[in-house]
What we know:
Structural class: alpha/beta
Amino acid sequence: xxxxxxxxxxxxxxxxxxxxxxxxxxxxxxxxxxxxxxxxxxxxxxxxxxxxxxxxxxxxxxxxxxxxxxxxxxxxxxxxxxxxxxxxxxxxxxxxxxxxxxxxxxxxxxxxxxxxxxxxxxxxxxxxxxxxxxxxxxxxxxxxxxxxxxxxxxxxxxxxxxxxxxxxxxxxxxxxxxxxxxxxxxxxxxxxxxxxxxxxxxxxxxxxxxxxxxxxxxxxxxxxxxxxxxxxxxxxxxxxxxxxxxxxxxxxxxxxxxxxxxxxxxxxxxxxxxxxxxxxxxxxxxxxxxxxxxxxxxxxxxxxxxxxxxxxxxxxxxxxxxxxxxxxxxxx
Length: 332
C-alpha cells in the first residue's frame, strides 16, 4: 500500500469524521482509509483504521466493528475502531446494508440475517488484504452490533475471538419490548400491520418508517432510550446519514430472529462482554455469560457507566478499549 493512499484523520474531506476523531483522540493524527467491499450484489462502505506504526510488509490481527442499530460508521464504530487500531490492530468500521453509504434496498431496513452477512462479508474483505493475518481475525461490536457479532461467531469459524460493549438483543427489543413485557397480542398486531404494509409496498405504496430512538424525551422513559435520544438526536453524536428511520419491513425479520440461540453449542471461541454497572442492558451480557459454550468467557463491568456512556464518553470508552485490546492480544 502506498502510504499516500492512507487518509489522515484531520483531513477535511470528511469533516464530521475528522472532528469526531480529533475530539475523541485528543487531536492525535489517525491513519485511516475509506474502502468498499461487496455483500452479494450491493456495495458496502467502510473505513479501515491502521496502527500508528503501520508497515504494509507486516501482517496484523484484524476485526470488523459492528455498529448499533441505526448508527453509521462515523459514529460509535469509529470511536472504537480508531482507538483499537492504536493498540496494533487493523479495524474495519462499516455501514450496515440498507443504511448509511452502503447499498441495499429498501433503505433503512434492519434485517438481522443481513447484519450477520454484513459481518461475514467484512471478514471476506479483510482476508484479501496482504497485511491481515487470516489466522488472527476477531470481531468487535456495540449494542445491537454486539449481539449480531456473537451470533455471527457461532457459524463463522474464521472468527477466533469476540469482544463487545453494551451488548443488546435487538430482536428481543422488537419482539418483547424494551422491558421484555410486551403482550403476545400486541406483538401479533404489529406483525399483522407489517404484513399488510408488505402487501401495500408490493402494490406501489410508499414505505412507512418508524424510529430507532424517540424524537422527544418523555417522563418515565427508560434511561437507555433517553440517553440514546441525547446521543443520536443532538450534536453530541448525531450524523446526517444516521436518519433515525427504520423501515416497517424490518418488523417480521427481527421478530423471528433469535440472537443467542445455539450459543450453548456453537459459541465456543473466547468471548469478552463489557458493560456498565448502570446499564439496563447488563442482563443480556449476564445471560450470555451463563449460556455460552466458551470455556474462555468474561463479563467486565465498568463502574458507574450506562449503556450509552460506552458509545462515546472517553472516561468509559477508554477503559473498554484497553480491556478489549488486552483480550484480543491474548486471543488473536
